[in-house]
Amino acid sequence: MAERHDAVSVVVVTYNGMPWIERCLESVRGHETIVVDHGSDDGTLELVRERFPDAVVVEQANVGMGGGNNAGMRVAHGQWFFLLNSDAWVLDAGLVRLVEFAESRPDAAVVGPRLRNPGGSLQRSVRGEPTLWRLATEYLGIRKLAPHSRRLNAFYAGDFDHDSVREVESLYGPALLVRRAAADAVGLFDEAFFMFSEETDWLHRFRAAGWKVLFFPGAEVTHVGGASHGGQLNVENLRGILRFLAKHKGVRTAERARLLLMWSLRVRALVFRGERGQRYRVGARFLASGDVASLLA
Asked: What sign has the CA pseudo-torsion 67, 253, 266, 174?
């Protein structure tokens, strides 16, 4: 099939995207590309304008990944939105293959490619939605007792090998192909999620509306990981989990999750030393600083 450059619009959200942004944008050159910048001061914008003059640049205050992607999708023209992190790039003709597969599945709202680490190893992207039980298996280390079990390792789909097409609950989100018609039907990202869990919420809403979320291994994307959010992993990740549970399972469930996570991180902080232990202590202090309503305010 001939490449259809008009079928897909690429949206890349940046905040100090060096040194990966050039490789990212080069991998999707030829497609409509919208770069949404959240205040870069490291030369990212200058590089984009010089090397990729056809890219549409949207500058705005940092409203988070969901809000940044929303801004890009609002000015895009394609029938598909390809949301690509600034520290990720498409391998070979992966985007063309991803669109071809998605167009063969009219029931699919979102299709995710196989992810690779920079060294070529698999980066697991198929996920399960958070529940109290799944949080316990993750934060108490229970999943390590039976990594191939879907019950004990549901967050990672029972150690799914990422070698076959699969309908999934959720996907790790550095590269997602989204059908415009589906986004029009359910709405864009909920911007209350500043960072983390915004894609979990969005994909949940697609599935609740009757659409499918699919994993497709026939297209691959390399993802560095961490570069696009400046390492703000721990507190914002915890806040995102609580916000998802409060929204979809109720505040009481989210409050139980807060206590579970708080005590789990306190135990981890006793077991691990150094920087890792410090991250756990910071997370536990955050969770102990208020109830769910105040932490999400």
From this structure: negative
What residues have CB less than 8 Å from 125, skipping those under 6 apart? 112, 114, 115, 162, 171, 172, 215
Residues 6+ apart with CB under 8 A from 173: 83, 85, 112, 198, 199
| 249 Cβ contact list (under 8 Å, min separation 6) | 131
pLDDT tens digits for 1-23?
334 446 999 999 999 999 999 99
Q: What is the DSSP string of 2-39?
A: ---TTSEEEEEEESS-TTTHHHHHHTTTTSEEEEEES-
3-state SS class at 99: helix
* Residue 297: Cβ-neighbour burial (10 angstroms; 0-12, 13-18, 19+): exposed
**Which token pair is 254?**
């989210």
DSSP 145: G
Percentage with pLDDT > 70 across the chain = 95
Helices (H), the chain: 21-26, 44-51, 64-75, 94-103, 132-139, 180-186, 198-208, 234-248, 251-271, 274-288, 292-296
CA distance 89 to 283: 31
Q: How many CB atoms neighbour CB 34 within 10 A?
A: 23
Cβ neighbourhood burial of 41 (10 Å; 0-12, 13-18, 19+): exposed
Three-state DSSP class for residue 48: helix
Reported pTM: 0.92
